[in-house]
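Project standup — Tuesday

K.O.: blocked on the structure for the chain from last sprint. Re-posting the sequence here as requested.
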Amino acid sequence: MQSNNPIKDLNEFVAKVDDIKKKDKMDLSSDQDLSLAIMNLISIEEHFFFTGAKTGKNEYYDLINIVREMRKELLKEIIKEYEGEVWCISKHLLAASMRLMEVGTKQLSMGKKDVAYSLFNKAFSLYSLFWGLNMKLINVGDVKKMDDKSVEQVVASAGSDKLAEKQSDPQKNGLMAKLKEMVQKAINCCIE
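H.V.: unblocked you, prediction finished:
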């Protein structure tokens, strides 16, 4: 049975992205910059919440709406159309990616390079999934459900200093690996 998953072949993917750019006049490098700005807006919303909670000042809570409205407006620039909860999933993919980058940076500053690299890899996986969903490069029906053993491995390794040692990637040719490679090839922020 032949799969309809459009990300099997890297050359085909790059051609598809080029076609999307031409048809939709999509500027992926600008959209990548915009996605990073959106990540920071999500983070600002969180910081206003925690500052309000810690200080007891409701004024910080009131600022959340201002930032949230800006974030929603900018997210519409990238997510033109979506189904189901893809909008919310996209927001959370960006937020989780940002948090993993921040935690990875802290681990790196503490000299825990292997843990940091593992977290950076996960952050980029989530970021790639964001782009795969929103560029419609993933046929969600073709994504296989993780088996219980895979879920247990992820849960068992969470929060451990030996995270990197436990993270041998058994799916180097899986969906996430392909997405990451394709995002690396298709979205080049250095091209003006």
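K.O.: great, moving the ticket to review. The helical segments are 10-24, 28-55, 58-78, 86-109, 113-134, 148-157, 163-166, 175-186. The chain has eight helices and no strands.
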